[in-house]
Structures are given as C-alpha cells and as structure tokens.
Amino acid sequence: MSVLALPALADGCPEVPDISEAMAPLYDSLLTAPDEGTARLIVNRMWALWDDAPDEPSQMMLDEGMRARASYDFLRALDRFDALVGYCPHYAEGYNQRAFVNFIRQDYALALPDLERALELRPRHVGALSGYALTLLALGREAEGQAALRAALAVNPWLAERALLKPVPGEEL
C-alpha cells in the first residue's frame, strides 16, 4: 500500500493513503467469489482498509464514532463523525459512517449527500454503494434506487440487498 507523498492538508489531516493497489485484487475476487460467505470475508478485508484512517487523531474520531453508534448513542456518533469530516474532508469513511448513523435514524435526506460524497472519494466502496441504493429506495426514489442497487451488485454480486432488486422488463434475475 502506497501513501501519496503530499503535504498535510490545510485542515491538519494528512493526505488519505492510496489503497487502490491493495483493493484491486479484492474487487476482482468479489466478482469470482463462489458464495456469500467467501464474499463476506473479502468485504471484511476491504473494511479493514477503509477503516484505516489517515492518522491517529482521525482514527480516534472514527473509532469513537463507531463505538458510539454500536451502543446506539447516535448523537455522540454524529458528533465524532462531524469532527472527522471536518478534520479529514478527503476521507470517505467519515462520510460513509455519518450517513450510516443518519440512515439508522431514518433521516435519509441527511444520509444521501454524505453517501454521494463518500462515493465521489471511493467510487467502488461497497458499503456506500449499497447504502446509497437503500437510501434512495427509502426516499421513494425507486428507479434511482434500483439503478444504484444494480451498480452496487456490479461490484459485489453477493450483497444481501440483491433481494430488493426488481427485474427490468425482459430481464431475468
């Protein structure tokens, strides 16, 4: 895994490491995974890379936010993810995790822009892709949600959300 040799950003957060080399074989493996269990193990390896924040302060904010979310302290989680996004605006996982908390809170309108930003930064982020599809569907934007779900399944055909896919006329699922 190579780290881009750029100076720290003006906000104090160092440049986000380039994980594309480490991710490429994982994405390829997802497409050939023989079953859901194997795909889940591959995605777990992806999460280990996505959840590796650029520096110690950002890692602490991410970890604190995830612990707060896990204990249903959504206000604390949002506070930590707000701080993370403010400190590291180029780190996709801050946006993705904040979107996840808002999705759990059923505040889909707040989740959507964070998912869009996460996907700008990491276009094949499986969690953000599936979250984006689910958020659009929850907002009643069926056609967009189905298109987003298809995009997510093109990256990981084993997503549990595949059960929500509706066939296009003339298409078999």
TrEMBL record:
For this UniProt record, give its keywords in alphabetical order, as a comma-separated list.
TPR repeat
Ranges for the TPR repeats = 92-125
Which named protein is this? Tetratricopeptide repeat protein
Q: Which SUPFAM superfamilies would you find in this protein's record?
A: TPR-like
The superkingdom listed in its UniProt entry is Bacteria
InterPro entries associated with the record: TPR-like_helical_dom_sf (IPR011990), TPR_rpt (IPR019734)
